Amino acid sequence: MVDYVLRRLLYTIPSLLGIVVVCFFLTRLSGDPTDLFLPIDASEEARDAFRVQYGLDKPLMEQFVAFFYKALQGDFGNSLRFGEPAISLLAERLGATIQLALATLFIAVGVGIPAGIVSAYYRNSLLDVAVRSLAAFGQAVPTFYWGVLCILIFSVWLKWLPTGGSGGLVHLILPATTLASTLVALLARVMRSTMLDVMRQDFVRTARAKGLGEFTVVMRHVARNAFIPVLTVIALQFGVLMGGVIVTETVFSWPGVGRLVIQAIYARDYPVVQAVVFFFALIFVLSNLLADILSAVLDPRVRYK
Amino acid sequence: MRHLRSPVAVTSLIVVGLALLATLAPGLLAPHDPAEQSLLARLAPPSFLGGPEGHFLGTDQLGRDILSRIIYGARATLLISIAAVVISCSIGTTVGLVAGYNGGRTDALVLRLIDMQLAFPVILLVIAVVAVVGSSVLTLIVVLGVSGWPQFARIVRAAVISVREMEYVEAARAIGAPAMRVIFRHIGPNVLSATIVFATYELSRMILIEATLSFLGLGIQPPTPTWGGMISEGQKYISLAWAASVFPGIAIASTILAINMIGDVLRDALDPRLSGEDGR
Description:
Chain A is mainly α. Chain A has helices at 2-26, 33-37, 44-53, 60-72, 86-121, 126-140, 143-157, 169-199, 202-209, 214-251, 257-266, 270-298, 300-303. Chain A: It holds the Pfam family BPD_transp_1.
């Protein structure tokens, strides 16, 4: 077990290295970084001064090592717009994003899992067909469009909920529902198909044969076992969620990290873009790692593959 | 091809056919010039809901015809998505074929590369690159295309490994066929169906990503109409007129849904073994 986790930890190193490389080359893609960081009409002296100040006159390899060393400490330089360190801007916005992500997971698990269970248990019934069609539909509709539709229906027409911004729980409902939409659909699909796999197994027949109630069989024996692969999917999707966070926060003007990065892109505030890209990619890699470790812990078969 | 005659398949084919027609010859379908403004008829509701004649789906904040803009908007989305899938499919299939056929060190290297790229969130990569380089059609195609190859490589590699040791491949090798000929002539066609099915799903994923980018203002820039861009513009006026943001979204969702349905049909028709959750 420890062996597996250690090996898996080792595998994340190239990924992390890859992320740093991408972040590093991001500002060098267009050739001269001073084009990005300084105003267009900056003088050649100002450019030279900037290069010396940030070590851009050094060899690329040396620059990379410096960047790497600083990135590991969370230092991406100061925001060009606010003059504060990029990382503290990110930290300020992090709370709102975490709030959104947790609410999303809560909704996705709370709706997707029961939907999958019911759909599998009554398979090929009208209910199952309804859940499956809704799930197919949920995955086809872009997150931002769900958001716009939610605003139209619940804010503009029904006037129940605010169109955006942050505040109390009422502000959280629409963004979290929107962000959860694809995840609900995915979880329902995965839960349904793993339920079907487990339901055919011998121990389920045994459980029924020894006279357990139908509810106990489904919940204790089938759903619990079917949930293991689903848990892995949830951990994996947590990283994917970060892309959706950017979109959802933009739609609802939610003051989180996703909105920060979009505003930073519009304002060409590259240190902030680098910091957020690095942060999101880190979450992505870590949630992949978590997914693998979780499935190894919960399902011993994985460890020996 | 009895699968293709189901009502779902026929509807999906019609939707995709219309989208393709709009991509190739939008002028044939669109009732108006997508850039033509009419300041007297701004934010008009659809004509079937009492809006002015001639604007079937209403008009946007500049009085431009929404239906025509949706039709012209298909071009950016579909061209970029199709080209991106072609690129990622070509790279991925070639890499997968070579890695799967050769095995050994090539294979190990390719696997690590695949893992490394899959560990990076695609949408983030695209946003980051577009943010710096800017968003031309070419940039979007290349970035999306390069981002998608690992999945193709993975699928093709697995398919190659499953047929590599079959007797007919051995026979081809035994009569002295060169490796390239064995790979492309004998193994290639057998991994084709899995690739086609996957390419279909991948197309709808690319459409989703392109729409998301243009919604965020990182795709093709105005005044060229894009579906995502129209929704983003329309959201600003949503309390005054819902048509400008709702209809482009229906275009996106129905295109994606139709392509996914065609993918399901192709999967069932070409390779029943891939058929996942239904029918069990």
